Target: ABC-type cobalt transport system, permease component CbiQ
Amino acid sequence: MDLLRSLPIGLYLEQPITWLHHLDARVKLLWLMSFLIAPVLANPIWRIGLVLLLILITISALIPLRVWRKQMGFLLTLSLLVCLITAIAPDGLPVEHQPRLPSQELTFDRQPITLPPTPIRNPWYNPFGWGQETPESEERIDSELPQPTDYRYVIFEQGRFTVTRRSLDLGIRIGTLFFTLIYSTNLYLLTTAPEEIAAGIEDLMSPLKRFNIPTTEIALTLTLSLRFIPLVLEEVQNLIRSVRTRAINWKKLGLRGTTKVWFSVVERLLENLLLRAQQIAGGMQVRGFTTPNTHRVQWHPLKLRNVDWVAIAILFGFWGIRFIWGWQA
Model:
């Protein structure tokens, strides 16, 4: 069991280097925010187009199949399942009213089994029923006269499964939104190093320095937290392996004994993580790192190149199409 490699989401791809790796982190962050905001108040065609665009970007970047097969396959399967369940679920519009009391409150023993149909009273504003037609004539008209259009609210109906236009639209919204939010973020993390992410966020937050907001400290904290995630996974992996190698008989321990063992494992995990954090802090102090403002380490120089300007131009076109044709009807 290797948690550092078995988790398919959120890992950085070092090799091979694709054209997505060459893009500036700030440009990719703008594209990520566009993918997160564009589905809001968008029609189903636009949402499906975002999913196809993400798949096209992944294929055009020549990312190895072994990398995105598990990620995209899992998310596509889950999104289709969510869409299917939402589509066959009741949409909530055809609500039937049922009276609290029965129509015939008093029943007698001599009352016939088959009651005559209850007469329908005319409304108060038309007591004589002028202009109204009998149910027989209405049924005859409905069966004889064709519908003026081919519009049908119920798209599919088979037994207990009914798919309406509203339920299908809601299923497409939820499924595509689920895939877009997760996979766009995963694709950004897959092609952007943690140091580039921190440097790009710091550069985009630079105007906030006028309001005395510590943007450099925030970027440093983000960098350390991103670098600390693999250490947490490594500690969890080592503790799980240590428990497995001891061949503990969980049935003999019972619920109370099992709880004590896992509490001790969690306690040991916290101790190891605090020790790692103390070691990192000690290493930074030994190297003279007292404040990020005086000891700046620029891992990746941020400079817009021709590829970045092309990506920005495409982004403007993307939002132009969104504002013209992407609105929800």
Notes: Residues 136-142 have pLDDT under 50 and may be disordered. The first strand starts at residue 154 and ends at 158. DSSP finds eleven helices and two strands in the chain.
